[in-house]
Amino acid sequence: MNTEFEKHAREQFDGLEVTVDTDALWANVYPHVKEEKGNRKVFWFFLLGLLVGVTAIGLFNFKQGNNTSANKSTEATTSATSIITEPIGSSDQTDLNNQVTAMSIGTTADDVKTNPSILELTESDFEKVETRLNTASNKDTTASSLTTKTKSISQKKSPSTASSQSNQSNKKDAIASDLYNEKTPITSKETTPLPTNKEAFTQKEKALIAADRKSLTNTLLIQALNASVIDQRDDSKIPESQQKNALDTYVKNLSRLKKATKKLRVGIGVYGGVSKSTSELSTNDTIGVNYTAERNTSEKQLETAHLGLGISVYSNKHLYLRSGVEYTRIASVFSSNSSLTTIDSTWAAKEITVNTITGERDTIFGNVPSITTNEFTKKHYNYIHLIDIPVIIGYQFEYEPWSVGIEGGIYANISAKYTGDISSTASDSFYDLEADEDKWFKTNIGVQPFIGLNAAYNVSDNFQVHFSPGFRFETLFSTDKNPVKEKHASLGIRFGVRYIFD
Amino acid sequence: MKKYTPQEIIRGCKKQEPRFQKALVVQYSGLLMAVSRRYTKDQSSSKDILQEALIQILKSITNYKEQGTFEAWMKRIVINTAIKYFSKNSFKNELYTIDDQPENSVEPGAYSNMAAAELMEIINQLPDSYRTIFNLYAIEGYSHKEIGEMLSITESTSRSQLTRARASLKKILITKEKIRLRI
Predict the structure, then answer these.
(1) Cβ within 8 Å, pair B55-A1
(2) According to the per-residue pLDDT averaged within each range, which of A145-159, A299-313, A411-425 is highest?
(3) Fewer CB within 10 Å, N side or C side of chain A?
(4) pLDDT tens string B73-103
(5) Which CATH class is domain A39-57+263-335+382-501?
(6) Exposed (0-12), middle (13-18) or buried (19+): which is A191, by Cβ within 10 Å?
(7) Is the CATH code 3.30.460.10 the one for domain B1-85?
(8) How far, in Å, CA of B79 to CA of B136, rounded?
(9) What is the DSSP code (8-state) at residue B99?
(10) Residue ranges of the domains in chain B?
(11) Nearest-CA residue of chain B relative to A2?
(12) Chain A residues close to B16, C-beta within 8 Å
């Protein structure tokens, strides 16, 4: 029985269909299978998060770096320029302040020409000075032993240096005096009148700082450091704010000096950005005329996104080379309309007969055809994914703490991939971009020329943020097999952070 | 409504085209409802299972590798949904007292003229666990090993439950035949 019964049941059930209200079923199913479009938002949030994260890490490292260097213990060593000969103490800051003053005054470029030996400083000299400055700036100072200290330093200088310093001092005084008389804008906001004997010094000091801001270059900084003239001044206290200003100026200038003396510096960083891409579709042959027109009306370019890892090499001649790996995603949207007509039947009153004599109504029920038409508009988000190696060279203008570079070069493409679909040449169907069965698109788009600007802000000696507007020239993405010639170009901006190694 | 080929429906559904998704629902829900109906006692449950299975089919169609027929793949999803719908534990714990085997045998005439609806009604009289195992083994053609994996039971449990299901069916058929003869 079992086998026979089961065989009979199988035969009966094979291909059996049961009537189902498909409209009601579809109405319940559709909300659960609607395409989710949250990916684009996620991508932008990720990009923004990445930039914020990297910037935060950079700033944190910058702060940490400052604290570390300030806490370094420093051994007193003999400098080639006799700048540092004393152990660090409260009075060192006043010495250093004097040095700052001295260096800030500087001399003119002509002095360098006549006495090139003043440029003979080594990197280690600057590092020593910087370390001591950082340490000293963190300590309370009374500057009470200014006279003693300056004298002790002066005594260690050779007679020839002392003579040179004397001349330098006179020159500096003269420049400072001139600047002061010219009423150069002064940034210090001291409001409390200083004692008479200090006042002259303060005014002079302000003038010196103004001179520094106005005319200091790396070369002059070298001269000033090398000259290392210590002014013979009152042993009056120098206001702390002025000391701080002078020290800050000094440290900044020292960093510029370092950059100038280093032949090559290497930086690495990450960046991201957006561009506006243009798409140019033109007909390859007569068959493609209508198809091109259709694509032109149904497709719209969206934002292009960039994400990259960069490596830069800077020379002290203001030239730089930028390379790395960059991912680019060109996005577009393609809208297609379709309609679905469902003919079904529902159980309803089919015929109503009214007896005109008796007034009785007779209703006949039956299957009444019902026609439902649903219109659908689907948006197809299409993407071109590019991986390129940029090779860009540039020339950089320095405006501390800013620098602006003009750059140009190429983007060498190593991969081009397409996802999504576009309308097909055959009506009522779609062409799968990823499968690209007819080989319409290139998998490598070759080389793209690029021009741009690179504006960078130095947050610290080693860390900078930058933004770079640029233009990538039009490139052909389609092969000869494609009935449409498809070109893209992009104009956009990239933001990023960069760490530059010493 | 335009009738699409399975290939067109698969391709369209993989691209999440609503018109092809609806076409799948319209063209296959009758077939799948018949499967769902065999695993449930009431129509309401079979509708719930069918709806859940269709959502699952449309969401996972991108994973369909076109090995075996499309219909078989969808049927399998309906069956799995039905199994999930009922607690798996019921297959382990459900115990039914089977009366002594009926002495009389069932003549083929008792069921040979039965249509699908009547057969379904008889099978639906079986308890959930017997009905499921009977459907899987006798109608769908799964082995006891496969049934054991699907229901998380041992092969021997599957065998014994099938034997009991068959015995129950026999009893139902004999009772039905007796009533028919009296009429």
Answers:
(1) no
(2) A299-313
(3) C
(4) 999 999 988 888 876 445 544 544 444 444 4
(5) mainly beta
(6) exposed
(7) no
(8) 9
(9) P
(10) 1-85, 87-183
(11) B166
(12) 33, 35, 378
The alpha carbon of residue B33 is apart from the nearest alpha carbon of chain A, in Å, by: 6
Distance CA A445, CA A390 (A): 14
On chain B, the residues whose CB falls within 8 A of the CB of A341 are 1
Query: β-pairing, A484-501 with A299-315?
Result: unpaired
Q: What is the mean pLDDT of chain B?
A: 81
Exposure string for A19-57, b = 16+ CB within 10 A, e = fewer:
ebebbebbebbbeebeeeeeeeeeeeeebeeebeebbee
Spatial CB neighbours of A129, under 8 Å, sequence gap ≥ 6: A79, A83, A84, A96, A99, A225, A254
Whether B51 and A25 lie within 8 Å, measured CB to CB: yes
pLDDT digits (tens, 9 = 90+) for B147-169: 888 888 888 888 988 998 888 88
Q: With an 8 Å Cβ cutoff, are B54 and A18 in contact?
A: no
pLDDT number for residue A417? 92
Rounded to a whole number of angstroms, the distance from the CA of B151 to the nearest CA of chain A is: 21
- A492 near A273, Cβ under 8 Å? yes
Q: Kindly list the domain boundaries of chain A, sorted by start residue.
A: 39-57+263-335+382-501, 72-261
Widest Cα–Cα separation across chain B:
59
Structure tokens at A135: 């340490």
Q: Which residues of B touch A10 (CB under 8 A)?
A: 138-139
Chain B partners within 8 Å of A19 (Cβ): 30
Asked if A32 and B55 come within 8 Å (Cβ–Cβ), the reply is: yes
Q: Closest by alpha carbon to B134, among B97, B108, B168, B105?
A: B168
- Give the C-alpha separation, B146 to B141, whole Å: 10
Provide DSSP, A65-104. HHHHHHH--------TTS---S---TTHHHHHHHHHHHHH
Per-residue pLDDT reduced to its tens digit, A144-163:
333 333 333 333 444 444 44
Quote the ipTM score.
Answer: 0.82
Q: How far is CA A158 from the centre of its chain?
A: 50
Distance CA A339, CA A342 (A): 10
What is the number of CB-based contacts under 8 A between chain A and chain B?
A: 107
Alpha-carbon distances of A366 from A228, A345, A360, A485, B26, rounded to whole Å: 111, 9, 20, 58, 22
- B44-53 core/surface letters (b: 16 or more CB in 10 A; e: else): ebbbbbbbbb
pLDDT of residue A129: 54
Measured between alpha carbons, how far is B32 from A230 in angstroms, rounded to an integer? Answer: 97
What element of type H or E holds B131?
helix B128-134
Cβ distance of B106 and A1 shorter than 8 Å: yes
Q: For residues B52 and B29, give the distance between their C-alpha atoms in angstroms, rounded to a whole number.
A: 12
CATH of B87-183, picked from 1.10.10.10, 1.10.3720.10, 3.30.2350.10, 3.40.50.2300, is 1.10.10.10
State the CB neighbour count (10 A cutoff) for residue A255.
19
In whole angstroms, what is the distance from residue A262 CA to residue A277 CA? 40
Residue of A nearest to B13 (CA): A33
Contacting B with CB below 8 Å, chain A residues are 1-2, 4-6, 8-10, 12-13, 15-20, 22, 25-26, 28-30, 32-33, 35, 338-343, 374, 376, 378, 380, 421, 430
DSSP state of A290: H
Instruction: Name the residue facing A33 among B29, B55, B114 (closest C-beta).
Output: B55
Q: Crossing angle for the helix pair B6-14 and B70-85, nearest 10 degrees?
A: 60
> What is the pLDDT, as a whole number, of residue A47?
72
Tell me the C-alpha distance between B144 and B150, whole Å: 10
Give tens-digit pLDDT for A437-453.
Answer: 888 899 999 999 999 99
